[in-house]
Design goal:
Blueprint lengths: L6 H13 L29 H8 L9 H20 L8 E7 L5 E5 L15 E4 L4 E3 L11 H13 L5 E5 L2 H7 L10 H4 L5 E3 L10 H9 L4 E4 L3 E6 L2 H24 L12 H12 L10 H14 L6
Parallel strand pairs: 6-7
Antiparallel strand pairs: 1-2, 1-5, 2-3, 3-4, 5-8, 7-8
Helix pairs in contact: 3-10, 4-7, 5-8, 8-10
């Protein structure tokens, strides 16, 4: 059936249709400067996706010894895993690994201060000397520099502890929360028992004062975990995988503590804490009796590197 409109109504609609005009703003053309492209714009061109991506696609691993290339790949993998698990805080935080120079001196690798952890590649890591001098800028070639707090924390521990290859630091919320508790870390569950002895360092503000390196090293002592009170946590190991897996277990343990404390309704009497003997037995099995059949962290990091290879293997670049 065809709808028949009254003649008067049809004439009114027709007049309205003829009077319609396209607003000027819909057809106005804007002239952009030659330098501006909506597809590549960034607040600062040197930090744009286009520019940074080109840098990060370059591999310079052939410039380094085989051992340093391996260390770079492992550390880059750890940065990607931190990002994947949400252990980073924006572009902040830092993980380092020690490398040996041809002259016998030691340096450490650290992230460029401006890359997301998901962008880190083996060739982008910056090599820093014990005095803070940049021994190699990586493929970003000084574009980002390094986090000064990262240098202060890591240089202090690497210098004081020649037995450590890797040091890792983060502000993961449950770890920062535990670092703010008077009672500190509680050995509540099996995961908690596996991490081992804990050290504490009192809060002195953002760690940029080089004089703080002395107390950082003294407080760390011979332990591989240190809570920076009201700040975050540090783990360290004789291998990159060891430091990473220790962080994995420690952060899981702080999550457990957060959940248990909530369930206990703030009353410590509601928490069941095992005996020191049981706690020590668990630690011994994990760290000194080769529970996994390999060095601590070796199988674990290898498994997660396989995961990364399936998701995005560009960390190896």
């Amino acid at each position: 059936m065809t709808l028949q409109l009254p003649h008067a109504v049809f004439k009114t609609i027709s007049r309205a249709h003829r009077s319609l005009t396209i607003p000027s703003w819909t057809v106005a053309r804007r002239s952009f400067s030659v330098e501006f492209s909506p597809q590549t714009y960034a607040p600062d061109t040197q930090y744009s996706s286009d520019h940074v991506s080109k840098l990060l696609k370059t591999s310079i691993l052939s410039e380094f010894s085989e051992q340093e290339a391996k260390t770079r790949i492992e550390l880059a993998a750890c940065y990607r895993l931190f990002g994947l698990k949400g252990w980073n805080e924006n572009i902040y935080g830092h993980l380092t690994a020690k490398v040996h120079e041809n002259d016998g001196s030691e340096s450490f690798l650290i992230n460029p201060f401006g890359l997301l952890y998901s962008e880190i590649t083996a060739s982008s890591l910056i090599k820093v000397g014990a005095d803070g001098s940049v021994k190699h800028p990586g493929v970003t070639d000084g574009l980002f520099g390094i986090n000064d707090a990262g240098f202060v924390i890591h240089s202090a521990i690497h210098k004081a502890r020649p037995d450590l290859q890797s040091v890792m630091h983060c502000h993961y919320p449950s770890a920062a929360g535990v670092s703010s508790l008077k009672q500190g870390f509680l050995e509540l569950a099996q995961t908690s028992h596996q991490v081992g002895p804990i050290a504490y360092h009192d809060y002195q503000g953002v760690v940029v004062d080089r004089n703080e390196r002395k107390s950082l090293a003294e407080d760390m002592g011979d332990k591989n975990i240190m809570f920076l009170r009201n700040h975050g946590v540090i783990t360290a190991g004789s291998s990159v995988g060891g430091a990473w897996y220790l962080m994995y277990q420690l952060l899981a343990a702080t999550d457990i503590q957060s959940h248990a404390s909530a369930c206990a309704l703030g009353d410590a009497e509601n928490l069941n804490i095992p005996s020191d003997r049981t706690v020590n037995k668990t630690y011994e099995v994990m760290h000194k009796k080769g529970f996994s059949g390999a060095a601590y962290g070796l199988k674990e990091l290898s498994a997660y590197m396989r995961l990364l290879d399936k998701l995005d293997a560009s960390y190896r670049t």
